[in-house]
């Protein structure tokens, strides 16, 4: 017995030495994927550019599921015509859906595939219940304490107006790109882009126009993005999650009087079902875009975190457990389920026999709407509960765009030139963008908005007190200008 214990201890020590050795080698072998790039001299952006942006913010281009008011969008188009005369007169206006805009900037070399810069002019409605919580009028456009205030400053007029400002600067300088550049600005992204971006993409497809790469909104430069990283991280979205909404409906044979409640009620059963879904989340995994993210940031981390991420073959379980604790990190590694609407009951003393919950799913690349539904059915597994896909808008996850393409490398280089001292990494967009409609016209679709935010400011997107710093907006213009120059070579 003593000899067996000695042998087991010896095997354990040898195994431990091997694990430590392998872990050390893998950590040492981590090499940086950052590109050595010199920062460019910042382009001077005057106060007039800020004034023009403020004017655009004041125009109420709200998205609405019901009939949209076209007048604000037409007023915005007139404002652009006035503020960007070189864009208006020198670029070619392409066929576009009413209220959307498409421009073509012909390049000198027609043999080069064009690039497409995207944005959207619509903004989300202001929740009436939160108006009192705003510290300024939601469409203020004012400049105070170094910030431009109002809905659209973050999502997404910063991209549209920033692109136009950059193009106007280059046109004033007499610049002509070698590669053709297109601009596409949809008008209904916030409600799915069905009448804007989707139709624009269809027109490009019908014309046989394909793109070297496409850039749309999506990710940004995030401060304190992850533990172990001190520098801000410029995140380039290389894929986005799918979208589907399901109604979970409970139907019992009878309801009853609230004075004699049975052990099981429709509302109780629905509540238990929602809890069951929370306690049995979709499986977590680090692959695809999430794996690319960690491959890029691991070499830049401090030593303990570098060891952890370099040896995912050993630490994967620990990583998944830790990532699952944060809402944003959790959304990166699994399909998420969010109950958003509960319906049932019509009188205070009557037990309803039929109640329902609406749940919204954001589906991880590699999975599908059908596989997600199958998982819900497996977890719920009750004949009294039906699961029905609802809503006209649904989309499987996007394909994952490569990181070795001209497009990714050009965006990476431009970020490093205009955002000094950042780390650049690919990432997964957990929300949706208009770019999902363009998969037939390019395999290289990237999602990046050139602004640097702290995590505390992320809630302002679609939220209360939306604002952007003046310096952030100036840097956005510089980024788009540099990107056009870098892309058109």
Question: Class of the largest domain, according to the CATH hierarchy?
Answer: Alpha Beta
Please estimate the helix content: 25-40%
Mean pLDDT over the full residue set: 92
**Oligomerization category of the chains in this entry:** single chain
As for the CATH topology of the largest domain, it is: Aminopeptidase
Using the 3D structure, state the CATH architecture of the largest domain.
3-Layer(aba) Sandwich
**Backbone CA Rg:** 26 Å
Tell me the distance between the termini. 75 Å
- What general outline do the C-alpha atoms trace? globular
SS-based class: alpha+beta
How many domains? 2
Largest sheet: 8 strands, mixed
Notes on the structure:
The protein has 489 residues and is an alpha+beta fold. The chain folds into two domains: 47-232 and 400-487, Aminopeptidase (3-Layer(aba) Sandwich), CATH 3.40.630.10; 240-395, 2-Layer Sandwich (Alpha-Beta Plaits). Helices cover 36% and strands 21% of the residues. It has 14 helices and 17 strands. It has helices spanning 2-28, 47-57, 71-83, 85-90, 157-172, 197-207, 266-279, 288-297, 303-310, 312-323, 327-333, 369-380, 406-418, 470-487, and strands spanning 92-93, 101-105, 115-120, 143-144, 147-149, 181-186, 213-222, 233-240, 242-251, 256-257, 336-344, 350-351, 354-363, 385-395, 423-429, 445-453, 467-469. The strands form four sheets. Strands 1, 2, 3, 6, 7, 8, 15 and 16 form an eight-stranded mixed sheet that branches.
């Amino acid at each position: 017995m003593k000899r067996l214990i000695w042998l087991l201890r010896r095997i354990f020590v040898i195994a431990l030495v091997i694990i430590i050795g392998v872990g050390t080698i893998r950590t040492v072998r981590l090499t940086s994927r950052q590109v050595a790039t010199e920062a460019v001299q910042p382009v001077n952006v005057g106060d007039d550019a800020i004034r023009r942006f403020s004017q655009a913010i004041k125009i109420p281009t709200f998205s609405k599921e019901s009939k949209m008011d076209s007048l604000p969008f037409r007023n915005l188009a007139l404002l652009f015509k006035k503020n960007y005369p070189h864009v208006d007169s020198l670029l070619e206006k392409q066929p576009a859906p009413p209220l959307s805009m498409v421009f073509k900037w012909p390049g000198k070399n027609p043999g080069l595939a064009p690039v497409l810069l995207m944005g959207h002019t619509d903004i989300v409605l202001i929740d009436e219940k939160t108006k009192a919580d705003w510290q300024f009028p939601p469409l203020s456009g004012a400049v105070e304490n170094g910030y431009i205030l109002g809905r659209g400053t973050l999502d997404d007029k910063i991209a549209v107006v920033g692109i136009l400002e950059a193009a106007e600067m280059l046109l004033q300088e007499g610049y002509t790109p070698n590669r053709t550049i297109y601009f596409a600005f949809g008008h209904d992204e916030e409600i799915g882009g069905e009448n804007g971006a989707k139709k624009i993409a269809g027109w490009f497809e019908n014309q046989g126009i394909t793109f070297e790469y496409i850039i749309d909104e999506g990710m940004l430069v995030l401060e304190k993005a992850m533990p172990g990283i001190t520098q801000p991280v410029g995140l380039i979205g290389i894929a986005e999650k799918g979208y589907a909404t399901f109604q979970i409906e409970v139907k019992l044979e009878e309801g009853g009087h609230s004075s004699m409640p049975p052990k099981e009620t429709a509302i109780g059963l629905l509540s238990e079902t929602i809890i069951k879904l929370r306690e049995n989340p979709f499986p977590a995994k680090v692959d695809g875009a999430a794996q690319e993210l960690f491959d890029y940031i691991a070499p830049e981390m401090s030593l303990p975190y570098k060891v952890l991420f370099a040896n995912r073959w050993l630490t994967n379980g620990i990583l998944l457990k830790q990532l699952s604790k944060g809402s944003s990190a959790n959304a990166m590694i699994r399909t998420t389920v969010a109950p958003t609407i509960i319906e049932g009951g019509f009188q205070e003393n009557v037990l309803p026999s039929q109640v329902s919950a609406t749940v919204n799913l954001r589906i991880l690349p590699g999975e599908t709407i059908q596989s997600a539904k199958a998982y819900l059915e497996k977890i719920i597994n009750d004949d009294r509960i039906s699961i029905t896909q609802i809503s006209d808008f649904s989309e499987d996850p996007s394909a994952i765009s490569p990181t070795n393409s001209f497009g990714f490398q050009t965006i990476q280089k431009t970020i490093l030139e205009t955002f000094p001292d950042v780390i650049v990494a690919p990432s997964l967009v957990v929300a949706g963008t208009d770019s999902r409609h363009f998969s037939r016209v390019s395999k290289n679709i990237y999602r990046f908005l050139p602004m640097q935010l702290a995590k505390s400011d992320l809630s302002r997107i679609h939220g209360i007190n939306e604002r952007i710093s003046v310096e952030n907006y100036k840097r956005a213009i510089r980024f788009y200008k540099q990107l056009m120059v870098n892309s058109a070579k």
